[in-house]
């Protein structure tokens, strides 16, 4: 046994030593103890939650607090009782069409109460649900729907959604399509209006006996990965995992008296899993917003007396970009729960909005573990200390990796190699034995190849299976973890690996920038990729000579030569996905090609010591020069 294990175990068994002795030997121990205590509490809550399905918990709230408001949406209040009645209508419609336990229905509905009661209605029958991203079109949409093998597709209200689906009807042969929100308007050919059925359906309760064969191992829903590489892939979310995701907000003590503000899309694991499921379990009120609005965010929070908010890192960046308001810190929010809050804005968020608790976490829809930063440590995503590792039945590790393959590097014995303090490492975590069936752990429904790529077998001993998150972290001396990069979000230039996240953090330090999307672009005659940054300006700012000079001096002063963006693109507005993640695919494909890019382009002009406008004639000269 290692020395620190002996000391810790000895200290743990000596009451007189106490926390003071622990802290004197291991200053970081208090952070571990907090995570352990919270973890035990969460495990207890999860164990208790496994006694019944999510829909059973919802129906219990309907019985005990029918008149309590479950959803506040666009100045309308929806009680548990009303939502249940609407869900019963959906269930009776689905049942009349022969749907039952273990069938699948795909739903493509925006953030609105109909999403909630449609999902709950299908759950009453034991029908699993595929959450389709309503922003998808054409091939990605076709793939997403068919990948879940649904018997029915229910499209929510909104002309754009219906148009997207009617464009692909020929490719959805065998899948019955229903459209909500048409009212008295006729449905297009190949689509049936859901509204007449809904009006005619009775809110007759559905007996739980109908779903009595459903177990925690059965599929509750499919939540898709973002599709940043290839098409979106449906992740198996069984009933046990759905409730595990739904208990995450208990880490900030979400309870029935809270009001949770949900602006993240419900088709995603953050909005739908952590938010919606998280509100169902304790019977909290969910303040639902159709679409994130930076200008309306805090006024909504004050108006609805919100107590807990969810965030994605970029969300706070957009909030900070709003003009300061004397009411910024006037609210009842006691906790913010989310991920991706960059270190460069964490302190500003604390100062300006004065949220008592910011709980940063790291996880993945298809992942098997959760990391937590409960110490309000700016930029940290969690902890990975010797003490926590010793107690963890399903250990995690940072290992050496190959940037090209995004896979761990093995030693002469074929085992993964752990990295040291301050060294970038690929994050992997052991798949719990209970999730492994006959040597397999199924992540995605539709892609065995993609499934196998996420697994690392024989990582540290024969037979073990680890999950590869594809994320690179760095561990500091206090054992706090920091996100450095996503494999694929790096580029290699001049023999060096460049982190787009690190470069973006530096670039956005310029006073006039709201955000910077950094990526690598190919350069003829050169190996690897050169850095390029797509810029979004703060309100009222311009990108003139003075700003370009300031940015040039800024990056040259803080970045090594190989990491400095050689190209700039001035975006008219930020390019974001439905979950506020920066979308790089289109930007990378367009690069600095004047035939594809209408935005102003600039290049790093070492002769003039500034960023200069990039014209087609300048481009040729620049590419021929020594970059």
Automatic annotation (TrEMBL):
Gene3D superfamilies xref list: 3.30.300.30, N-terminal domain of ligase-like (3.40.50.12780)
Pfam family, one: AMP-binding
InterPro entries registered for this protein in UniProt: AMP-bd_C_sf (IPR045851), AMP-binding_CS (IPR020845), AMP-dep_synth/lig_dom (IPR000873), ANL_N_sf (IPR042099)
Keyword Ligase: yes
Catalysis performed (reactions): a very long-chain fatty acid + ATP + CoA = a very long-chain fatty acyl-CoA + AMP + diphosphate; tetracosanoate + ATP + CoA = tetracosanoyl-CoA + AMP + diphosphate
All copies of domain AMP-dependent synthetase/ligase, residue ranges: 58-387
Domain of life the protein comes from: Eukaryota
Transmembrane segments: none
Keyword field contains Flavoprotein: no
Family: Belongs to the ATP-dependent AMP-binding enzyme family.
Name of this protein: Long-chain-fatty-acid--CoA ligase
Source organism of the structure: Aplysia californica (California sea hare)
């Amino acid at each position: 046994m290692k020395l620190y294990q002996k000391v810790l175990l000895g200290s743990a068994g000596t009451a007189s030593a106490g926390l003071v002795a622990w802290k004197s030997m291991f200053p970081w121990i208090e952070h571990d103890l907090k995570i352990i205590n919270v973890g035990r509490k969460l495990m207890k809550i999860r164990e208790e939650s496994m006694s019944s399905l999510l829909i059973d918990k919802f129906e219990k709230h309907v019985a005990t607090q029918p008149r309590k408001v479950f959803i506040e949406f666009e100045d309308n209040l929806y009680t548990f009782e009303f939502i249940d009645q609407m869900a019963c209508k959906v269930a009776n419609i689905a049942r009349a069409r022969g749907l039952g336990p273990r069938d699948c229905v795909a739903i493509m509905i925006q953030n609105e109460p109909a999403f909630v009661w449609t999902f709950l209605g299908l759950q009453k029958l034991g029908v699993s649900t595929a959450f389709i991203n309503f922003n998808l079109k054409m091939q990605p949409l076709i793939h997403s729907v068919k990948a879940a093998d649904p018997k029915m597709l229910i499209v929510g209200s909104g002309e754009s959604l219906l148009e997207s689906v009617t464009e692909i009807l020929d490719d959805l042969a065998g899948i019955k399509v229903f459209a909500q929100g048409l009212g008295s308007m006729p449905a297009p050919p190949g689509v049936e209006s859901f509204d007449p059925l809904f009006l005619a359906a009775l809110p007759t309760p559905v007996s739980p006996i109908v779903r009595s064969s459903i177990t925690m191992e059965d599929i509750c829903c499919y939540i898709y990965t973002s599709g940043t590489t290839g098409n979106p892939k449906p992740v198996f979310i069984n009933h046990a995992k759905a409730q595990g995701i739904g208990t995450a907000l208990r880490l900030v003590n979400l309870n029935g008296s809270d009001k949770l503000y949900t602006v993240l899309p419900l088709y995603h694991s953050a909005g739908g899993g952590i938010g919606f499921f998280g509100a169902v379990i304790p019977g909290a009120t969910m303040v639902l917003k159709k679409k994130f609005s930076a200008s309306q965010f805090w006024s909504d929070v004050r108006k609805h007396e919100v107590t807990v908010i969810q965030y994605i890192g970029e969300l706070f960046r957009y909030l900070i970009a709003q003009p300061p308001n004397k009411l910024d810190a006037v609210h009842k929010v006691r906790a913010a729960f989310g991920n991706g809050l960059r270190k460069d804005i964490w302190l500003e968020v604390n100062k300006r909005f004065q949220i008592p608790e910011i709980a940063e976490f790291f996880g993945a829809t298809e992942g098997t573990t959760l990391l937590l930063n409960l110490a309000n440590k700016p930029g940290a995503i969690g902890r990975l200390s010797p003490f926590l590792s010793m107690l963890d039945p399903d250990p995690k590790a940072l290992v050496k990796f190959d940037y090209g393959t995004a896979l761990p590097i093995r030693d002469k014995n074929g085992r993964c190699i752990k990295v040291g303090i301050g060294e970038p490492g690929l994050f992997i975590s052991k798949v719990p034995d209970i999730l492994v069936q006959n040597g397999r752990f199924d992540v995605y429904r539709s892609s065995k190849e993609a499934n196998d790529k996420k697994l690392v077998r024989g990582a540290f001993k024969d037979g073990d299976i680890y999950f590869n998150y594809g994320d690179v972290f760095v561990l500091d001396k206090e054992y706090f973890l920091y996100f450095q990069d996503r494999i694929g979000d790096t580029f290699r230039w001049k023999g060096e690996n460049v982190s787009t996240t690190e470069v973006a953090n530096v670039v956005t330090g310029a006073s006039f920038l709201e955000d910077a999307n950094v990526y690598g672009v190919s350069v003829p005659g050169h190996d690897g990729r050169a850095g390029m940054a797509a810029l979004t300006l703060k309100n009222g700012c311009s990108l003139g000579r003075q700003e370009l000079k300031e940015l040039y001096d800024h990056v040259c002063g803080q970045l090594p030569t190989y990491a400095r963006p050689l190209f700039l693109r001035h975006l008219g507005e930020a390019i974001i996905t439905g979950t506020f993640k920066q979308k790089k695919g289109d930007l990378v494909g367009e690069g600095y090609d004047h035939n594809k890019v209408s935005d102003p382009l600039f290049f790093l002009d070492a002769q003039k010591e500034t960023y200069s406008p990039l014209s087609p004639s300048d481009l040729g000269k620049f590419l021929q020069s020594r970059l």
